[in-house]
C-alpha cells in the first residue's frame, strides 16, 4: 500500500499536464450533468409514491383539482361587502370568472357573485310566492320538524315571519342582483350577519374571497405558471373602497422553486467568497487558493454525478452544497498543508510521496466512514431525506478523489 501511494504521487506529479487535460474533460462531461438536475418541491419530496396517502391524493386531485388560489377582497373600514357587490363589482368579478374559465388552465372558479346567483335561484319561485321556492320549502320543512309549542318551533316561526317581512318589502319585479336591497337580503340574515351558507366565500361584513382551483397532479412549473396567470388576472379587479390580495400554496412553491434555482448559486457564491478570504488571510502557504480551486472542481463533479443519477434538488438537498464545500476544503487544505510541512521539515527526500503515504489512507478511511453514514439516510421514510443522503455520499466520494488527485498533481 505504501508503494501504491508513493507511485501515485510520482505519476500524478510527472504527468501534471495530462492530469489537467483529463481533469478538464471529465469536469466538462460531468458539468453537463448539472443541466439534468430536477427541482422537486411537490408532494413527491415528502411522500413515497407507493404509500396509500400518496395514491389517494392523486385520485383526489384528479377528481377535485389541485391547489387553491385565494383572492381575498377586504373592504376598507366603514364599508361592507354588499357595497362591493354593486353592479360594477359584480361585472368585474363575472369578467374575472369568465376569463379564468375560458383559459382552460384551471379546474374551477367560484366568486361571491356565483354564490349570490345560487342564492337568488334558491329564493326565486315561478309565481313569486316565496313559500314555493326551494329555500322556502326547506324552511317550512325544518319548521314542521320542530315539536309544536317548543322553543325551537317558536324561534323558527319568529325568524320566518321576519324573513317574509324583509322579503315582501322588496317588490317581486325588483328582486334582481342589480338592486342593492336584494343583494343585502341575500347576503345578510335577520340578525345582520352574513348568512352561514355563504361564509365560505363571504367571510364577514368586510371580507369576501374568490376561490380558484388549479388542475390536479400538475408539475411545480405548470402550477406556478397557472398561479401567476390567476394572480395577474385577479389583480385587474379593483374596488375604490377595498383592497385585494391573491395568494396560495402554489405561489409559495413557485417562489421556493425559483429560490432553489437562483438562491443556490447565491449561497454557493457567498460560501466561496468567505473561504477565499479565509485562505488569503490565514493560510500561509504557496498558492493559497489552490484548495478552493480543487474543491470547486469537486463540487462540479458531485452535482454533475447527481444530475446523471437522477438525484433531485429539494429544500433539504441544497443544504448539501455548503456541507460538501466544507468537507472538501478540509480535505484539500490538509493535503496542501501537509505537503508544505514536509517540504519545510525536510525529513523526506520527496515531500509529495511522504504526504501521499501518510495522509492518503487516512482520507480514504474518513471518506468511507462519511459515505456509510450518509448512506444510512437511505432508510428514511421521507424521499427528500434519502435524496440528501445519496447526494452527500456521491459528492463526498467525488470530492475526496479530486482533493487527492488534484492537489498532488498541482504541487508535484
- Rg is 34 Å
Shape: elongated
Q: What is the rounded distance between the termini?
A: 20 Å
Number of individual domains = 2
- Order of strands, main sheet, comes to 2-3-1-4
Beta strands, count: 4
Q: What value does the average pLDDT take?
A: 86
What fraction strand? 5-15%
Global structural class: alpha+beta
| Helix-residue proportion | 55-70%
Question: With helices defined by DSSP (H or I, 4 residues minimum), what is the helix count?
Answer: 15
Poorly predicted parts? none
- SSE sequence, one letter per element: HHHEHHEHHHHEHEHHHHH
Largest sheet: 4 strands, antiparallel
What can you tell me about this protein's structure?
With 412 residues, the protein is of the alpha+beta class. The chain folds into 2 domains: 164 residues, Multidrug efflux transporter AcrB transmembrane domain (Multidrug efflux transporter AcrB transmembrane fold, Up-down Bundle); 186 residues, no CATH class. Helices cover 63% and strands 7% of the residues. The chain has a 4-stranded antiparallel sheet with strand order 2-3-1-4. The protein is elongated. It starts with a helix and ends with a helix.
